Amino acid sequence: MKTTRKQKRGPFLIHLGHPLTFSRDGFPVVVTSLTVRAPNKDEARLLSDSVGLDQTFGLLALLADVPVTAIEDLRARDFYAVCEALTKI
Description:
Elements: E1 12-24, E2 27-36, H1 41-49, H2 53-64, H3 68-72, H4 76-87
Antiparallel strand pairs: 1-2
């Protein structure tokens, strides 16, 4: 019997339609694209169990290595693109 393993894909590079601006270590950072890595097993479980936007924003910030405030500032189209990329993992 042949067994197959599901290949994890990622990280995903998502080009944003509107740049994000946030501060890191006291310096302003302008981001025009996000690199979203694949969640580990625990993060995937948390993401699938997330009920509110606050928890979802926190997990996306963790996966993209940006502050939560940057994720909160995403435009709807960009937020959808990030969520769409995560469904392909």
